[in-house]
Specification:
Shape: elongated
Radius of gyration: 26 Å
Strand order of the largest sheet: 3-2-1-4-5-7-6-9-8
Structural class: alpha/beta
Number of strands: 9
Oligomer: single chain
Helix content: 40-55%
Strand content: 5-15%
């Protein structure tokens, strides 16, 4: 079953809790094995031979010791209802023990390499809806058409879906800096709890990000594997034209990221805030909207997930965007007033739209793909390797 999951890892990793999915697969497979064994019993007229009776006390002591093994916290147990019969309890308990490293932040299980690198942006895991792909692509193209120059910055990368799109707009001489913890120790206890859900349980690693990005771009970005508080010391002020903020959702951290974005952006530079309307991230709107009301941040547009804004001239970009949206028959938008500033509210397109950066991506070079295959062969047991080859054929 793990070999089959490995072949489909790109799709499994894009789910919210891939480890819970794998737990369920293992439980279901074991249940099928038990049923098969039960159905294969054949009645006979002679009783089977019994094992010789040895030290019964020693056997009971060994079983009691096994039940005293440490288990994980409740939130990390196998998904689904808790088994109650003695037959079902023992395997579930042993699987929880086997998955122990998943809950220790400093002892993570690395993301397995996918069977095939992503071919399109949709193959990359992450929550980057098509509406934001279209809007972000248009705003970056608008900057280029109006002569806005500067570097690119992303704070919070996940598996690289938005970074890949931004990378298509990186021009000669421009820096593209990506800042993310990628599993490094968070600076505070609140950050640690937040990062547990992202990096440990979803097994996000820098290697997974780099593999996804290299599939689409030959030149990698400059990676800062650190908290976003390190960005001001590495990115000079007034050098960026586009900043995407999608890191921590904690109020204090978002406030710091807002000031960082304001410092590094040039005049008429654009900043994007993710999860501005999500119910599970109240710290983001609590930090961003006061900046609109009193801090000089002028909104350009609002999508179901992101706010696009600037500390410069928002009207020119809004007028051009409204003209672009009117030419899109499947788009839906309106202009609202927020704290005395006009804001273009963009809804999801009514019909499916193609990916704005092209349906096909240039695959990895033969040298890169050969290296991936060699690593997989070295790490996987021979039985798993043979199963993967059979599945591909």
């Amino acid at each position: 079953m793990l070999a089959k999951a490995y072949v489909r890892w790109v799709r499994i990793a894009s789910t919210q809790r891939p480890e819970a999915y794998l737990n369920r697969v293992l439980v279901n497979e074991q249940l099928r094995w038990w049923r098969k064994q039960a159905s294969s019993e054949v009645a006979g007229d002679m009783a089977p031979d019994r094992a010789a009776v040895g030290d019964a006390g020693g056997g009971r002591a060994a079983r009691d010791a096994a039940w005293e093994l440490p288990t994980l916290p409740r939130r990390c147990s196998c998904s689904g209802p808790t088994p109650t019969s003695p037959t079902l309890r023992s395997p579930a308990r042993s699987w929880r023990i086997a998955l122990g490293p998943l809950v220790e932040y400093g002892d993570r299980v690395k993301t397995p390499l996918p069977a095939r690198p992503p071919r399109t942006l949709d193959d990359v895991g992450g929550w980057f809806r098509r509406t934001d792909q279209l809007v972000m692509h248009w705003l970056l193209s608008y900057q280029e058409s109006t002569g806005v120059t500067g570097d690119l910055l992303e704070m919070g990368a996940y598996l690289g879906k938005s970074a890949i799109l931004i990378g298509f707009h990186r021009r000669s001489g421009e820096r593209f800096v990506v800042c993310d913890l990628f599993g490094e120790e968070p600076p505070t206890a609140d950050n640690r709890r937040e990062a547990m859900a992202s990096y440990v349980r979803r097994n996000l690693t820098r290697e997974a990000f780099e593999l996804n990005y290299r599939t689409f771009h030959a030149d990698p970005p400059e990676i800062v594997q650190a908290p976003t508080s390190a960005v001001p010391g590495l990115v000079p002020a007034d050098t960026c034209r586009f900043v995407h903020v999608d890191a921590s959702h904690l109020y204090d951290v978002v406030r710091e990221d807002i000031q960082t974005a304001r410092s590094v952006l040039r005049d008429n530079g654009i900043v994007v805030f993710d999860d501005i309307r999500a119910a599970h991230t109240p710290g983001v709107p609590a930090a961003v909207w006061p900046e609109v009301a009193d801090g000089g941040l002028r909104p350009i547009c609002l999508t179901p997930n992101k706010l696009y804004a600037t500390w410069g001239d928002a009207k020119s970009a809004q007028d051009a965007m409204l003209e672009w949206l009117r030419a899109q028959p499947a788009s839906s938008s309106e202009v609202q007033q927020v704290a005395g500033h006009p804001l273009v509210r963009v809804s999801d397109w009514k019909t499916p739209q193609p990916c704005p950066v092209g349906p096909d991506a240039p695959g990895p070079t033969g040298r890169d793909f050969g290296r991936i295959k060699r690593i997989a062969v070295d790490l996987l047991p021979p039985a798993v390797t043979r199963a993967i080859r059979r599945a591909r054929n």
